[in-house]
Structures are given as C-alpha cells and as structure tokens.
Specification:
By secondary structure, the protein is of the alpha/beta class. It has 16 helices and 13 strands. It has a seven-stranded parallel beta sheet with strand order 3-2-1-4-5-6-7, sandwiched between helices. Strands 10-9-8-11-12-13 form a six-stranded parallel beta sheet, with helices on both faces. α2 links the parallel β2 and β3. α1 crosses α7 and α4 packs parallel to α5. The radius of gyration is 20 Å and the shape is globular.
C-alpha cells in the first residue's frame, strides 16, 4: 500500500490534478491518497475542487493580500514539514511550474520523500519568460524522482538535461482527461455563469473567446491586443461576437475596459469558473489566448487557437498546426483571425488537426506507473 500526497496550490494545478486524484482514489487497495492545498490561489482553486467533488485533507490557506514569491515559498516549505512528518507519504505528487509545486518538491526532498512531477519537461529555455514558471519547472525537474512528460518533446528536454531515462514516462497531459471529465458533468441549468452567458451572448454568431493574463504582456502588449480585438469587432459587427472574461489584475482590467467596453459585439465578463469556461470553449468558433492550458485543451474540441505570446513551452501544438503564435502584434492577430473567419477551408484544416497533448488516458498511465506496472506510453 503506497501513501500518496497531492500538493496543489492554484486553479490550473487543481484542474490538471483532479482526474489523477479521482483515478488514484478508485484503487483503495493500492493507494492511500491525501490532498493538501496551499491555497496559493483561494477562490478559483476552491471552485475547481468543488466542481470535481474533491475534498482536501490539509489546507494551508496561505493566500494573503499583496503576497510575494519570497514569503510564499518560505511559508509553503515551513508549513509542509509537519504534514510530511505526520502522513509520511511514499510519494509527493506535484504539478507543472507553480511556486507551490517547486516549494512542495523542495520540502519533500528535505524530508527524504520521493517526488513525482506531473507535466514534466516543458521548457522555453529563457528563465525570464515566463517568470517565474520557467525556473520553477527546471528546479522541480531536478528534484523529481519520476517525471510524467506529456509529449515526446518534453521527454527529450529532460534527457538533454541528463535526467535518467528510466524515470521519464510519456503519459499525455492530464488536462485532456480533465476536459473530458468536466464536459461530462457540466450542468448548464444550474451554473449561474452559463445562464448569464446565454442571456448576453448571441450564439448564432461566430464566437471568439479571449483570455489574457500574462505579465510579460502588461502595458503596450495589452494595448495592442485590445486594438486588434477592436478591429475584428468593427469588421464583423453582425457576424462575430467576442467574449472576454477579464482577469482581475488591474494591469489587464484598465486597458481592456478603457479600449473595449463600448464595443457592442464585445462582451466583457467576470473571470469564469472552470465549468463555465470549458462550456464556453466548446461553444466557441475560435480562441485567442495567452494561456498554456487552453493551448492544450482547445484542439481536443476542434477549436483553432491564436496564442498571444512570442515563444511557448508547448511547441508541439505549433508543429501540429493546432495553434498559431501571433504574439501581441496587432496586425498579425487581426489578419490571422480574419483569415480563419473568412476562409472555411483554412479553418477546417486547422480545426481537424490531431491534438499532440493527449487522449484522455494520462491518469490511467500514471496510476499504472505509480503501481510499478508496465505501461504503453502516449504517442
């Protein structure tokens, strides 16, 4: 019987860990499973936990106003020590590239506990982009004893860093597992955000869903993005609606509201919970985003994605043709979006591409690996 502790701190981690937590709990004869929340994020994290009906065994409740990376890192490491000592897990499972995942991995290393890293091996090779995520995932990768790489590229990145090949497994990305599970349990009638969206959005039009939050785009980048969205809205006043759940950060709120609030066919809404967001993705024609997770999810729904970044740690999607990097270049965003709106053959070709990130069975593979069974890797 292996004891497994999942340490989760943010909404993206919760989304991508949820199907794996649920899958591990289906084998009580193999695993004793506990979940620890750092609450690096609070409200958005709690929404995801409730949606997937997962209850935390430990909650550090660390989020506080104006928190910084220095104090958050220290607080997580110190707070996890007594939990590790009490539960004595065989494995601590962490996800991706957050301050929670790196701090939890480091604390586990200090406690002599093995670490398994879900979504291992993503790299931009620029430690400042994205910040602090690129350095976080490098550090976690150096600590981890098992590496669950979503793709061949991410596995090769780890091999290039002299990580033992026997510890690396290509599993696909659990975000696809989460998406499939999530869409199967969405309740349109009872989700207030979905009800509201239905009342303000004309779904007979082509819907462009927009998300943007990355700090490297703050300032001029967001102004360019808004100018591009404005151009698209004005060109298709009767055929297109743009739905933009606006991130709460003032660096996003101020330029977006200033430049886009008066456009009739741009709907600025509050950030959506996970249930409403995946429902909205499924209803969309095209997605414009700087989100990593959306780059992985949308191709499974046949939705082309324009990525508002100059580099990405997910090059597989670019190579597969499911996403296009447009940066924050106003002209490039506008021209590429218009081509997808106007050229049906181009749209069909892009929306029909194979998703390189998974088949919805990543959690099954990871459970087998944790149980030391042989597994056929994702290809």
């Amino acid at each position: 019987m292996k004891k497994i502790l999942f340490v989760v701190g943010t909404r993206p981690e919760a989304i991508k860990m949820a199907p794996l937590i649920i899958k591990c709990k289906q084998y009580p004869n193999l695993f004793t499973v506990k979940v620890c929340l750092t609450a690096q994020h609070r409200q958005m994290l709690d929404q995801v936990m409730a949606f997937f009906n997962i209850t935390a065994d430990y909650d550090l409740n660390l989020m506080k106003p104006n928190q910084n990376l220095h104090s958050l890192t220290a607080d997580i490491i110190v707070a996890l020590k007594p939990i590790y000592e009490e539960f004595k897990p065989n494995w601590v499972l962490v996800h991706g590239d957050t301050t929670t995942s790196t701090s939890a991995a480091l604390a586990a290393f200090y406690s002599g506990i093995s670490v398994a890293h879900v979504e291992a091996g993503l790299r931009t090779f620029n430690k400042l982009a994205p910040f602090p995520e690129e350095m976080n995932r490098n550090i976690t990768g150096r600590i981890a004893d098992l590496h669950f790489a979503p793709t061949k590229t991410s596995k090769q990145n780890l091999l290039n860093e002299a990580i033992n090949s026997a510890s690396i497994f290509i599993t696909g990305n659990t975000v696809i597992d989460a998406l499939k599970l999530g869409l199967s349990i969405v309740n349109e009638a009872e989700n207030n955000e979905i009800v509201q969206l239905k009342s303000i959005v004309d779904f007979n039009k082509k819907i462009i869903l927009v998300t943007g939050h990355r700090r490297e785009n703050f300032g001029e980048g967001f102004e360019n993005i808004c100018a591009a969205l404005q151009s698209i809205a004005k060109k298709y006043p009767n055929d297109v609606e743009i739905v933009y759940p606006v991130h709460l950060n003032p660096n996003v709120q101020i330029p977006v509201n200033k430049l886009l609030a008066n456009e009739a066919n741009i709907k600025l809404v509050q950030p959506l919970n996970y249930e409403a967001f995946i429902w909205m993705m499924n209803k969309s024609y095209l997605i414009i985003t700087d989100s990593g997770g959306v780059q992985e999810e949308a191709p499974s729904l046949g939705k082309p994605v324009l990525v508002m970044r100059d580099i990405t740690e997910r090059p597989e999607a670019v190579e597969a043709g499911t996403v296009i990097l447009v940066g924050t270049n106003q002209l490039k965003i506008t021209e590429t979006a218009c081509k997808l709106l106007d050229n049906k053959d181009y749209y069909t070709q892009m929306s029909g591409k194979h998703n390189p990130y998974g088949d919805g069975l990543a959690s099954d593979r990871i459970v087998k690996i944790l149980n030391e069974e042989k597994v056929i890797e994702y290809a």
